[in-house]
Amino acid sequence: VGAGPGDPRLITLRGLECLARAGVVISDALAPRDLLRSAPPGAEIILAGSRDGRRTLDQAAINRIMIARARRGLDVVRLKGGDPTLFGRGGEEAEVLAAAGLPFEVVPGVTAALGAAATTGIPLTHRGHASSVTLATVHIGAGKSADAIDWSALAGAGTVVCYMGVGRLEATVRRLIAAGRRPATPAAVVRWATRPDQQVVAGTLRSIVSRARRAALAPPALLIVGEVVSLHSTLSWFDTGAGIDLSRTA
Ligand code: SAH
Q1: What does the pLDDT look like over 96-143, one tens digit per residue?
Q2: 220 lines ligand 1 (CB under 6 A)
């Protein structure tokens, strides 16, 4: 189940339905903690994310737990930040369940890029600025080099959103410019998109590294690159207190 990008209200109705009947919830660190309150009082809650850079459960252990609980007849919800299949190993875990002969459903979620785009007022496509958007990860697996990434494809026209980019921000920006993206291209880093503590740093490819450093931006954050980022200054609504306050009408 995709938990959405951070604001617990951005889970889907189907996701909430699944949580409400879960016997077991195995939650990643990025899934909003508040959502766990939607599970039945007796449900077993397992926190499987990484804490302080260390994973509390490795992938093999998660797989074993999912299979064992499901075989006991329990409804297992594997709750993941954003969308489960985007840089979230959802595909790998579904393969494990398929191999074990267990029935499963995949509930999509609002991925971080879409959450960040909405709250920062950066439309990922726009008729005047970009007709394509690429979601990429610049996280390199152990033993792999950054050369494994097709930088010239990312440097082409259109919007690029890089997940897991904070630690690699400088290298990412350098590679994009080397591959031909103009240094004056608007760019933004968004941390904890859609949450009340969301942080946005905007600039250009030339300035974004030092600006993000000055703001001491830590993970989780993503980098958005492209002409559409120039709309942020006009369309940003999140920090202004705009939006519909449902607590007033309740
Ligand atoms: N499945 C998730 C992504 C998991 S990878 C999704 O669809 O959103 C983890 C990376 O996602 C983080 O390193 C960060 O780059 C990004 N991310 C997740 N939640 C975020 C948020 N609320 N704000 C900014 N970036 C976020």
Answers
A1: 999 999 999 999 999 999 999 999 999 999 999 999 999 999 876 666
A2: yes
Task: Using a cut of 0.85, tell me whether the model's pTM lies above it.
Answer: yes
Contacts of 34 (CB under 8 A, 6+ apart): 8
Exposure string of 165-179, with b = 16+ CB inside 10 Å and e = fewer, is bbebbeebbebbbee
Determine whether the shortest distance from the Cβ of 86 to ligand 1 is under 6 A.
yes
User: pLDDT tens digits for 150-184?
Assistant: 899 888 889 999 998 788 999 999 999 999 999 99
Q: Tell me, in angstroms, the distance from the centre of ligand 1 to residue 239's CA.
A: 20
Compute, in angstroms, the gap from residue 222 CA to the centroid of ligand 1.
7
CA separation, residue 74 to residues 24, 40, 102, 162 (Å):
7, 13, 12, 37
Say if residues 124 and 159 touch (Cβ distance below 8 Å). Answer: yes
Instruction: Classify strands 50-51 and 54-55 as parallel, antiparallel or unpaired.
Output: antiparallel
In the chain, what is the straight-line distance between the N-terminal and C-terminal CA atoms, in Å?
A: 28
